[in-house]
Design goal:
alpha/beta, 8-stranded mixed β-sheet, 3-stranded antiparallel β-sheet, 16% strand, elongated
Length: 394
């Protein structure tokens, strides 16, 4: 497709210029009035397929071209001028001629619509950036690729434009500055350096709390810490049995508690342990009264809280879960189910918007091989790998 901008003193003049240059098959892509300080007038961006371009001498300027049509007729005219596929030698195997013609026309139309869709998307992404960056295809493409991963458009715009400004001021590639900026937005914490005595895992049902607790137990045991577990999840069917089975396999002390008295006894039982992990019911996390009751349990132990959220959650759901968890003290984050999503941009928007410190993430279903401390290099690698090469950003 050939694209060109036309500038004229008024709309009729610009329209005549487009007709003379591109013929009646031209498609108006954008239109805007020019500011008075720039001389006024209008600017129109128009496009036309190469095969629909009028041949010089076919029609006099300003006169309609006899074979040009608007709308569906333009597509038919383009088809009539395109090369038709060679007919097979054996007519019996070729099918009716009209079917081949229809299939060829359908393929031509589909290809044209795809080109038009890409063009419209490109124009939309250009308009999202500040005017001084709109003529940089690498920046427009980087913005598009970031939003396709789920990153909020306003965050993508700010990150791309800041990276472009940094590259202009300090030199180097835009993508390098982008990555450095992203690293500064991630809040990380290494709990392994000085773990608390009591550490509770909390979050919505189905997020992987019990599995995260088992992974944490294996993680700290590998670092020589004597670990025990307490479960308060006596509501979900089989939850206590699942944790008890894991504890036996790993040689952990475990206690199942249904009330405050049993919880107090369990705290005394594991007083000599270096670390006590506390499993909480997902149902108690959803309602305010459940959170207040759970906060009373955890305050009794002076426990820090690890909020367990799946990476598959939408940014709005992540933000809602965080709002419900803000009343708990010393909050950090475990992200699970990284292997079940390819759109990590929403997580980055979550961090930019004020997520708690990120402590661990689970990269897959294997316990404990896929459970690891969170690092900026690992997260950004999982998210951005492929963008630098495929996105052709420099």
């Amino acid at each position: 497709m050939k694209i060109k901008r036309f500038t004229a003193r008024d709309l009729p003049t610009a329209t005549n210029m487009i007709k003379e240059e591109f013929g009646l098959a031209a498609l108006i892509l954008s239109q805007r009035e020019l500011p008075a300080e720039a001389g006024g007038g209008v600017e129109i961006t128009a496009g036309v397929r190469e095969e629909d371009m009028p041949h010089r001498g076919e029609a006099a300027p300003g006169k309609p071209e006899p074979k040009a049509r608007a709308g569906p007729a333009a597509g038919a005219a383009a088809y009539a001028r395109s090369a038709r596929p060679a007919r097979p030698a054996d007519p019996a195997l070729a099918g009716p001629p009209w079917r081949r013609d229809l299939e060829h026309f359908s393929a031509t139309l589909t290809r044209s619509l795809g080109e038009l869709k890409n063009l419209i998307l490109d124009l939309a992404h250009r308009q999202s950036l500040a005017e001084k960056w709109r003529d940089r295809p690498d920046l427009v493409n980087l913005y598009r690729r970031l939003t396709e991963t789920g990153l909020a458009p306003e965050h993508a715009r700010g990150l791309v434009e800041l990276a472009a400004e940094s590259a202009r001021a300090w030199g180097g590639e835009v993508f390098t500055h982008l990555r450095r900026n992203l690293e500064s937005r991630l809040r990380l914490v290494d709990i392994s350096l000085s773990p608390p005595k009591f550490l509770a895992v909390m979050g919505p049902s189905g997020g992987g709390k019990t599995t995260a607790l088992v992974n944490l137990a294996a993680f700290f045991r590998q670092r020589g810490r004597q670990t025990a577990a307490i479960t308060l999840d006596t509501v979900r069917l089989g939850a206590a049995e699942q944790l008890t089975r894991y504890a036996r396999i790993m040689g952990l002390g475990v206690a199942v508690c249904q009330n405050r008295e049993e919880f107090s006894s369990a705290l005394e039982l594991f007083e000599s342990s270096d670390l006590v992990l506390i499993d909480t019911p997902g149902r108690s996390f959803q309602k305010p009264e459940g959170r207040r009751e759970m906060a009373a349990f955890l305050d009794q132990a002076g426990a820090s809280v690890l909020l367990v959220l799946p990476a598959t959650m939408k940014e709005s759901d992540l933000a809602a879960a965080l709002d419900r968890a803000r009343e708990f003290k010393d909050l950090s984050l475990i992200l699970t189910k990284f292997d079940e999503t390819g759109a990590l941009g929403g997580l980055m928007s979550f961090f930019i918007s004020g997520a708690p410190r990120l402590a661990f993430f689970s990269l897959g279903p294997k316990t404990p091989e896929d459970f690891t401390l969170a690092t900026a290099d690992k997260f950004l690698g999982l998210w951005l790998d492929g963008l630098e090469t495929d996105g052709q950003v420099g």
